[in-house]
Amino acid sequence: MTTLLTPRSPALRNGWILTQRELLHWVRQPALPIFGLLFSIMLLLMFGFLFGGAIEVPGGGDYINFLLPGMFTLTMLFGLEGTMLAMSTDATKGITDRFRSMPIHSSAVAFGRCGADMASSVLNLAVLIVGGLFIGWRITTDLGSALVAVALLLWLRFALLWIGIFLGIAFRSPAATMAVQVLVWPVGFLSNVFVAPETMPGWLGAIAQWNPISATATATRQLFGNPTGVTSGWMTEWAVPMALLWPLVLTLVFLPLSARAYRHLRR
Is Iron a UniProt keyword of this protein (predicted)? Predict the structure, then answer.
């Protein structure tokens, strides 16, 4: 460990060591990641089978096939508060200060957190995809398009992680964490995850269409060959480019902010 943590060690190598630390915590205390996965499955079953029969998809198509890509996207968002809480807890308890005193790259802590959460997201996404296939969801395009859809989902998750990392470092109070936990819900629901924006009032539908969550959900529906709920408008042609652009913008904004917040972290 001492040999690896030298001033000349690259950030990614240091980050991988800290990623292993986080993964080891989850192995020893698996309750939190398991609860998060079960919560996503509960939402899927609730909307798919309790409410799904009353929801029509504009343009036609099966609601389960419409819902699943939206649920995949929403799962990428729901991990944000967990990332924030983990970073905030480490900073509050002085663990982050210990890392700052060690001869490791200054960005290794954030990359370690990011790596662990990305690994968790891959596992959660795989479980949801398998579960979706069991309840009737189908991919009707080729394997390449499906892999691009998965890549877009993880790309969104990567961008959202930096928001959580920044908030966890910059705002370490329990009240801030609770506020983010509350705000995640309207951000996720004010999108096309569960219903198409065309069924909403005009002003609300416009907001939903510009939600980054909606861009990724629509793009993955197209790539999986599922009903998109979009019959007209710019989203029919620009969903995939927007699903690439939105996470890029979020990353370019919040990754530097995370680095700055870490450098100015009060001991």
Answer: no
